[in-house]
Amino acid sequence: MTDKRTRSFEDLVAEGASVPTEGWDFSWFEGRATEARPSWGYAVSMAGRLGRAGAALDLQTGGGEVLGFALARAPRRPPLTVATEGWPPNAAKATALLRPHGVAVVASSEDAPLPFADGTFDLVVSRHPVRARWDEIARVLETGGTYFAQHVGPGSVRELTEHFLGPQPEERRDARHPDRERRDAEDAGLEIVDLRAERLRMEFHDIAAVVHFLRKVVWIVPGFGVEAHLPRLRTLHERIEREGAFVAHSTRHLLEARKPGPGRPGR
Predict the structure, then answer these.
(1) Average pLDDT over residues 9-14
(2) Residue 158 CA neighbour count, 13 Å, CB half
(3) Residue 221 predicted with pLDDT over 60
(4) Any bridge partners for residue 125, and if so which?
(5) What is the pLDDT of residue 263?
(6) 27, 115, 119, 125, 190 from 81: Cα distances, Å
(7) So what's the pLDDT on residue 54?
(8) What is the structure's pLDDT at 171?
(9) What's 254's domain CATH number?
(10) End-to-end distance of the chain based on CA atoms, in angstroms?
């Protein structure tokens, strides 16, 4: 392939706009963008919890990649594992990926009530949910059950957001603050067992990576489109060409919550 540093702005933008966005496989970014990983190793920790679960639910599973990784490494698989996903292309991808693991994928919007009976699951997990419905999470957890998740934190990748949209109001920047999520979880009747947050360095080495990232992670620049944001894309491309990688920072928090009361024997 032609060295990306010699390619035109137009070619790079066209490439970034053409890459499929289904699922949460980020392997395309190899050599084009990097993101430091949280120290807690969420997927590996999830695998351990799945090995002790009787009935597990993965919310907003995307293409099922994280759940599939964790199930493949769990010491045993839960007798019942279900995943939800609201975007049809992702739901189809997750179904194909997770079927060999015995996982049922249920189409369910992140804003809709969960289509499960009260107290169905002793473990609910989620990696980067668009929004945590704390009332619904508490409802479908059995007494003594656990919610274990990695959430996107406040102001994540705000350097990109503000490049395209300008300074953001404080309420938007703090919308995913872990202290707010703690309060919302407790208001739903859950006890916080663990809550840790980290700020992680990201680097974008060409404008194609920026375009693909913003198409894939749609909440960073709501309403992003190449034509609508072409002048700001060109400005950023010229900056990368002149100064090197564009640096931003993601924010993540690990959250473990418990529904008070005794759990199943052996849990």
Answers:
(1) 97
(2) 16
(3) yes
(4) 58, 148
(5) 65
(6) 26, 14, 14, 11, 22
(7) 98
(8) 76
(9) 3.40.50.150
(10) 53
Tens of pLDDT, residue by residue over 223-244, are 999 999 999 999 999 999 999 9
What interhelical angle do 9-18 and 230-243 show, nearest 10? Answer: 120
Please state at what angle helix 9-18 crosses helix 207-216, rounded to 10 degrees. Answer: 30
How far is the C-alpha of 161 from the C-alpha of 44, rounded, in Å?
A: 30
Spell out the residues 6+ positions from residue 233 whose beta carbon is closer than 8 angstroms to its own: 9, 13, 207, 210, 211, 226
Q: Cα separations (Å) of 200 from 47, 67, 139, 173?
A: 23, 23, 33, 16
On whether residue 264 sits in a domain, the answer given is: no
Q: How confident is the model at residue 174 (pLDDT cuts 50, 70, 90)?
A: confident
Residue 267 lies in a domain: no
181 contacts: CB under 8 Å, gap ≥ 6:
132, 151, 253, 255
pLDDT at 209 over 70: yes
Total structural domains within the chain? 1
> What b/e string do you get for 237-250 counting C-beta neighbours within 10 Å, with b at 16 or more?
beebeeeeebebbb
HEC profile for 70-134?
A: HHHHCCCCCCEEEEEECCHHHHHHHHHHHHHHCCEEEECCCCCCCCCCCCCEEEEEEECCCCCCH
Per the domain annotation, does 265 fall within a domain?
Answer: no
Q: What CA dihedral angle connects 43, 95, 143 and 186, to 10 degrees?
A: 60
Q: Which residues span the domain enclosing 60? A: 4-258
Residue 252 lies in a domain: yes
- Return d(Cα 256, Cα 182) in angstroms, integer: 10
Which two tokens mark 232? 């700001």
* SS3 state at 242: helix
User: What is the chain's mean pLDDT, rounded?
Assistant: 94
Mean pLDDT lowest for which of 104-113, 183-192, 258-267? 258-267
Which pLDDT band, with edges at 50, 70 and 90, does 180 fall under? very high
Six token digits for residue 257: 């919550």
